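Thread title: Can someone regenerate the structure for this chain?

I was given the following input by a collaborator and told the matching structure tokens would be attached. They weren't. Posting the sequence so someone can regenerate them.
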Amino acid sequence: MSKNTVALDLLIGAILKLGSTHSERENVLAFIHSCYCGRVLNYDLDLALASLKCLSEEEQHGLIVWAIKNEEAAGRNLPASA
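Best answer:
Regenerated them for you:
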């Protein structure tokens, strides 16, 4: 199995574990975008952290990497970190 296939499987698994409600997924993604992509978005911190606890470390990492790559692909370059 290729590295990309494993990463995609982790991402899909993470999204499915976030529940069937669109709002839970959006809240977690808003949290990730705010923390890792430098975007200021509204989210419920307690709910986002509770949702992320349902994911394995690998699934969390896959979701975060996917969000960052999406930001970069959309042309919103991230500022260089120190």
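The radius of gyration is 13 Å.
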